[in-house]
C-alpha cells in the first residue's frame, strides 16, 4: 500500500457517512454560500471554502464549543483526549476553511467530525494552532480537507499537522516525529546513547520525507525540484551516518580505555601482594637471624 493510498482524494468520505446528495458544484475560493437550512443542520454555521486564511468566525466558534459526542467521555462530560483538553484552552486563530475541491455540506462535515476523535482534534487544531512556516509535503500536494498546514506547539507527542492528523494519518506528515521514549533510566554513557537516539529519529524522519516525495511525484523523473530536494535530504542522511560512526568510534575508544584501566588495576593489586610477601619474608629472615645469634652466645 502506498503512502497516500488511505486517503488519496480530499473529497473522500467515510463509507459509514451519508453522501452529499445535496452538494452541487463547489463554490469558488473565498465564497461562503448560504446553504438552505434543514432540520438536520439548522444550527451548523455556514462553511467557507478557499485557500486564504480567514479570521475566526461562526464555524470556528462552533468547533471550539466541542458539541460532539466523540469529544466527551460518557455522562462525565470530560474530554476524551489530552490533545482536546490542551487545545480547548487556546484562543481561536482562524476560521475553519475547506479546500475548494472538498464538496462537503454542513451535515456531512458535522457527521465526519463526529465519526472519530482524530477528526475533531484535526478541526480544532486547524482553528487554534500555529500556521507552519514550511507546509508539509502532503499539504503542498493538496491532501486532506483543510486549506492550511497548521501545527500544535508545546505538545511533543502531537507533531503532525491538522490536515495529516485527519483520520489518523499522522505518519505521512513531514512534521511528524515519534513520541519521545520516557522509559530509559539514567546510566553511564547516557549522553552518547541520547545523541544516538536523536540521530536515529532524525534519520527516520528524513527517510519518511524521501518516501513522501517519491509517492507525491508518482515516479515522475522530470520533477527537477523534487529530485534536488531528495538529493539534499540524502546528503543530510549521509552526514548523520558519519556523525553516528564518530559516536560509535568514541564509544569503542572509551571501552578500550576502560579495559586498559582494569588491566592496570590488576597489575597494581599483584604488585601489592608481591610487596606484602617480600616484607613478610624479610621479617621472618631477620627474626631467624637474631634467634641464631643468641643461641651461639649461650
Total number of β-strand segments? 6
Give the class from helix and strand content and strand pairing: mainly alpha
Widest sheet: strand ordering: 1-4
Could you report the average pLDDT, rounded to the nearest whole number? 76
* Measured distance between first and last alpha carbons: 108 Å
Question: What does the main sheet amount to?
Answer: 2 strands, parallel
The fraction of residues assigned to DSSP E strands is under 5%
What is the element string, with H for helices and E for strands?
Answer: EHEEHEHHEHEHHH
Enumerate the spans where pLDDT stays under 50 for 5 or more consecutive residues. Answer: 1-42
How helix-rich are the residues, as a percent range?
40-55%
> What is the radius of gyration?
34 Å
Tally of helical runs: 8
What's the shape? elongated
Description:
By secondary structure, this protein is mainly α. The protein is built from eight helices and six strands. It has a two-stranded parallel ribbon. A two-stranded antiparallel ribbon has the order 2-3. A two-stranded antiparallel ribbon has the order 5-6. α2 runs parallel beside α4 and α7 runs antiparallel to α8. The chain is elongated and about 125 Å long. The chain starts with 47 loop residues before the first strand and ends with a helix.
Write the SSE topology:
Layout: E1 48-49, H1 58-65, E2 72-73, E3 78-79, H2 82-88, E4 97-98, H3 106-113, H4 117-128, E5 130-131, H5 137-140, E6 150-151, H6 162-165, H7 190-217, H8 224-297
Parallel strand pairs: 1-4
Antiparallel strand pairs: 2-3, 5-6
